[in-house]
Amino acid sequence: FQAMSASVYAVYAAQWARQNHGICLREVLGELRNVMARGRTLKLSEDRYVAVYSTMAEAWMRQQEAMIPAWRSWLTTSSLAVGTWLSPLSRWSKRHPLVTGATAATLNAAVSDLLLQRFLERKEKLNFDRTMTFALFGFAWAGIFQYGLYTQFFPEVVRLSGMTGSRAVALQVVADQGAYMPGMYLPMYYLTRTMAVAAPDSEPQAVAEEALQKYCQNVTSDMRLCVLFWVPMQLINFSFVPIPSRVPFLCAAGFLWCIGIGVSSSSSQKD
Length: 271
Description:
This protein is mostly helical.
């Protein structure tokens, strides 16, 4: 509303200047002639300045009083319309959290890989086999496995530990970033990435060794990204997000993560 008010003020300032340009122009030109003739500093008379300012301010206040309620009404109506449209989807996702999470993770992995190929790697022909491999990774690992991890296993660990509040949140963040990410997620990610670009006749052992090499090469930089990105995200996730909605929340945040880790690993390969 402040930005809107400033815009209205600017419009009315322009309108006032256009309507009263004769008065303003005569005074400015007179002062300008004095400056050129005597070398004095250009200065409009204080009375004229007060008149200009008060006139614009009054018009601005009148327009603001008329427009702000209208804008508030429009925003409220729009919010209610969007909420009504999304309400069935929200109810369905709450009844089917596993399907929602798996679908979101699949789309997240596929779309982020397509964007990386198109805009980062500048490929003229997209590798859809690679995209399908990442989509499968998103569905099976990021969707189904992480659903069990974050909505079943972690809450059970918290229950058995007897921790509550901030201590329970801290326990989950430490377990997630200290054990799961470096010990399970990142190795599986690099194995999937290596499989996606490997030749069809590649030996499984060779693929696994190459994936391990890439993991060891990038794990330090990847964990730095985890600390900067996932620690804040998981603090929010474990503190405020309902347990059934944890995976969809991670998928929404994970879109940026997939782009970031893809850029990181691609940069290491170039180096």
